[in-house]
Amino acid sequence: MHRIDGPGHVGNQFTSGDPSIGQQATMVTADWLNDMQGNMARAIEQAGIALAKGNFDQLYAAIVAIAAGAAGDGSGAVPTTRQLIGAGLVQVIGDLAVDRTINVKKASPASVAAMIADDEAITPFALQGGAGGSLMAGIGYKTIFGLIIQWGTYSVGANASVNVTFPTTFPTMCVHADCAGGRLDYGAQDNNPVVSSKSAGAATIFNATDGVGVTGTWFAIGF
Predict the structure, then answer these.
(1) Under CATH, which architecture does the 136-222 domain have?
(2) Regarding predicted confidence, which is higher, 136 or 203?
(3) Is the sign of the CA dihedral 162, 167, 170, 174 positive or negative?
(4) What pLDDT digit, counting tens, does each position of 83-117 carry?
(5) Alpha-carbon distance 6 to 153, whole Å?
(6) How far is Cα 63 from Cα 115, in angstroms, rounded to an integer?
(7) Which of 66, 161, 176, 210 is packed most tightly, with the most Cβ within 10 A?
């Protein structure tokens, strides 16, 4: 294929000429016409269409056929019978006969918390929910992938006990609970407060000091 280069062309463009300046009209050469004819005929024949004199739809039909082949009717690059099949995190199945949506399965907060699935993508939303709730306050808790850490304050009288209720109940068990606080007392009998018992929802703190109550903080961990 080439642009017109016969006598009278201007920059390989056709011109009707201008006698006032001596510009002749462009001569349509046999080389250029044969080039045009050959290229159009080849496109039609490559589409499997036999040339037919007087048929003005053949080039259009060839373009449609070639485009359909490229899109995948079996004569082009991507047959419509080719399958899209999911693997790993990608979920999609079906051929290319219609539009397909490729999905990446999202993990739910419950799935993140369970920590079992190996074929789901974790989003920030699922991570926050899966990691668990929290109450970030003076008396609060934080859940980290099923492990729950809780804390708070207490006040207990002399030689007495106090029950502290956890901000959230451990679903399974409280593994450990402890407390800090008390006062400086060298009396052998005046031990600082200790956690005397615990359950999934509360702990009991006992204060052995005489004559005065104490305050402090407590800490618990479980799942």
Answers:
(1) Sandwich (2.60)
(2) 203
(3) negative
(4) 888 887 888 888 877 788 888 888 888 888 777 88
(5) 99
(6) 54
(7) 66
Location of structure tokens 């004199």: 53
Higher pLDDT, 77 or 112: 112
Q: What does the domain layout of the chain look like in residue ranges?
A: 19-71, 136-222
**What is the torsional sign of CA 30, 31, 33, 34?**
positive
Q: Evaluate if residue 204 carries a pLDDT over 80.
A: yes
* C-alpha to C-alpha distance for 136 and 111, rounded to whole angstroms: 24
AA letter at 171: P
- CA torsion sign for 177, 180, 181, 182 is positive
pLDDT tens per residue across span 28-44: 999 999 999 999 999 99
8 Å CB contact between 168 and 174:
no
Backbone Cα Rg of the chain: 42
Helix (H) or strand (E) holding 217: strand 214-222
Short-list 168, 158, 156, CA closest to 195: 156
> What tokens appear for 166 in the block?
């956890």
Taking Cα atoms as reference points, which of 154, 123, 171 lies closest to residue 219? 154
The pTM of this model reads 0.49
Q: Do 125 and 201 contact (CB within 8 A), yes or no?
A: no
Query: pLDDT class for 26, splitting at 50, 70, 90?
Result: very high
Contacts of 66 (CB under 8 A, 6+ apart): 43, 46, 47, 76
